Amino acid sequence: MSGSRPQKPSVVCSLHQLDGQDSDKDFAKVASIVGGERKLPKISYLKHEAAAVFKRVRSFGSFQDLVVPDIDGYESSENTEDDDDDDDDSWGLSGYVTDASEFDRILISAWEDRFAGGLFRYDVTAVSTKVIVGNKQYVAQFNIGRATNKRPTEFSIDKVCQDFDANKFNFTKADLKEVLFSFTALAGQADENVSRSIFEPSACVGESPTVVLINVSPIEYGHVLLCPRVTDKLPQQITPDVLLPALYMASESRNPYFRVGYNSLGAYATINHLHFQAYYLMEAFPIERAPTVEIAPGTHGDCTVYRVNGYPVRCLCFEVGDSFEELATLVGDCCVKLQGANIPFNILIADHGARVFLIPQVFSRRIAHNKIPESVIATGVNPAVFEISGHLLYKQESDYDGCTESSAEELLACASLTETQFLALIKFTVGEGKNSPSAVQDLTAVVDSEN
Question: How many CB atoms lie within 10 A of CB 446?
Answer without folding.
Answer: 23
